[in-house]
Design goal:
This protein is of the alpha/beta class. It has 17 helices and 14 strands. The strands form three sheets. Strands 1-11-10-9-12-13 form a six-stranded parallel sheet, sandwiched between helices. Helix 6 links the parallel strand 4 and strand 5. It is globular, with a radius of gyration of 25 Å.
Length: 440
């Protein structure tokens, strides 16, 4: 059901050579880019008419308009299962607690007497958020996108989610209910690359956005790449991943359950166990069979995911090697199920989010830990972070110098300008001091 990669007995290679030994899904955004380009440009030129046409072509629905009416949002919230509502409210509460604490404050540094640099943080004006549809419904992704944007102070928030045939062309009602709970009333029935294009270019119904965030399929990722530079993005989200670093103290039933929990997302989902304990590896394999048989989505998602090239049990010689492997892998979600798990977690450099010990499964982070589940995939955790309040803030430096403060450093500025063969830069200072710069 799941393959093995045995790295024992040899010194591990460095950098890219080690990454090449590890399992990873094929996710060719560049190839998808050429397919989404005409879709994006069609939305640019035809706006809402193109979105309606793509809704019929890709989603099998006939729409008269893209924006979801206010009454549909209110009705979705009214009809929401009370237990689901309570769970979403708790998820929102915990996410707000964590993300509110992330808000940066303005800070002024006095460089010299009379010379200061202030860094202020300004939220982007308008964001377009994407909540995926398709195989599953993700109201949790609504929470994870909206809460940090709101806590950052973004004034204009719009959300898009694919239209669903079984719900009359509207996004899934649980998505709509989550929007209503969060006070987001600008919602669009649009999916895929065309939704990103709608936010990037704007249409008759939807104003253009400064930034687009949220996970999606390869077409969404390709559209984000296409528009990078025109709009800000969070990340090009690929297939979801879990890596578990475990030793002989781990419970194989827990490890197997957590691997399966990510495999049920998608046949391309990655489930990776890194361990120095062959007995644990054997026990986890034995646990997979009955646990997979007892759940849903077995043939179309879980079995292909576990059997795919992106999933494996990786055997290593010890914890040090294990840490080296998980840092090279850079998992979206990394669980540490070892002795002294907190200390081990503190040594990890590359992961989207780290889950410490047996009582912090990835599922907790997906919904109610308070952390954000929009995280870097495909090894991007080696250079990127998950979604946060910072994602929606711009840092601006404000430079305020008096005449005396400028005079003190003017000769250095002129010297550096001349060293770079940019005499007009120096002349800008000379003009302020009668063409004779103090100190020269």
């Amino acid at each position: 059901m799941i393959s093995r990669i045995d790295l024992r007995g040899n010194a591990l290679p460095e950098g890219g050579a080690l990454r090449d030994l590890l399992p990873r899904a094929e996710f060719d955004v560049e190839a998808a880019l050429e397919k989404v380009r005409p879709i994006c440009e069609d939305v640019h030129h035809r706006g809402t008419a193109a979105l309606i046409e793509y809704a019929e072509k890709f989603d099998g629905v006939t729409l008269e308009r893209i924006r979801v009416p206010a009454e549909a949002l209110a009705e979705a919230l009214e009809k929401l299962d009370p237990q689901v509502k309570a769970a979403l409210e708790e998820s929102i509460r915990r996410a707000r607690t964590v993300h509110r604490a992330q808000r940066r404050t303005e800070h002024t540094t006095q460089v010299v007497p009379g010379g200061t640099v202030t860094e202020k943080w300004v939220p982007v004006e308008r964001v377009g958020l994407y909540a995926p549809g398709g195989r599953s419904v993700y109201p949790s992704s609504v929470v994870m996108n909206v809460v940090p944007a709101q806590e950052a102070g973004v004034e204009s928030i719009a959300l898009a989610s694919p239209p669903q045939k079984e719900f009359g062309g509207l996004p899934h009602p649980t998505i709509l209910a989550a929007c209503a709970l969060l006070g987001v009333d600008e919602v669009y029935a649009a999916g895929g690359a065309q939704a990103v294009a709608m936010f990037a270019y704007g249409t008759e119904e939807c104003a253009s956005a400064n930034m687009v965030t949220g996970p999606g399929n390869i077409w969404v990722a390709a559209a984000k790449r296409y528009f990078t530079g025109r709009i800000g993005i969070d990340t090009e989200a690929g297939p979801t991943e879990i890596a578990v670093l475990a030793d002989e103290t781990a419970d194989p039933a827990h490890v197997a359950a957590d691997l399966i929990s990510q495999a049920e997302h998608d046949p391309m989902a990655a489930a990776v166990l890194v361990t120095d304990c062959a007995a644990l590896a054997d026990a986890v394999e034995r646990e997979l069979e009955p646990q997979v048989a007892a759940t849903k989505h077995v043939e179309d998602r879980i079995k292909p995911a576990l059997a795919g090239r992106q999933s494996a049990i990786v055997l290593v010689d010890g914890l040090e090697q294990g840490l080296k492997v998980v840092d090279a892998y850079g998992a979206e979600h990394l669980e540490i199920q070892t002795a002294d798990a907190a200390a081990v977690a503190g040594r990890v450099r590359n992961a989207g989010a780290i889950f410490v010990g047996p009582w912090a499964p990835v599922s907790l982070g997906d919904y109610c830990a308070g952390s954000n589940h929009v995280l870097p995939t495909g090894g991007c955790a080696c250079h990127s972070s998950g979604l946060s309040v910072q994602s929606f803030l711009k840092g601006i430096h404000i430079v305020d110098y008096s005449r005396d403060a400028l005079a003190e450093v003017a000769h250095h500025v002129v010297t550096l300008a001349e060293a770079e063969d940019l005499p007009a830069h120096g002349a800008a200072l000379k003009a302020r001091f009668g063409w004779k710069v103090p100190g020269q």
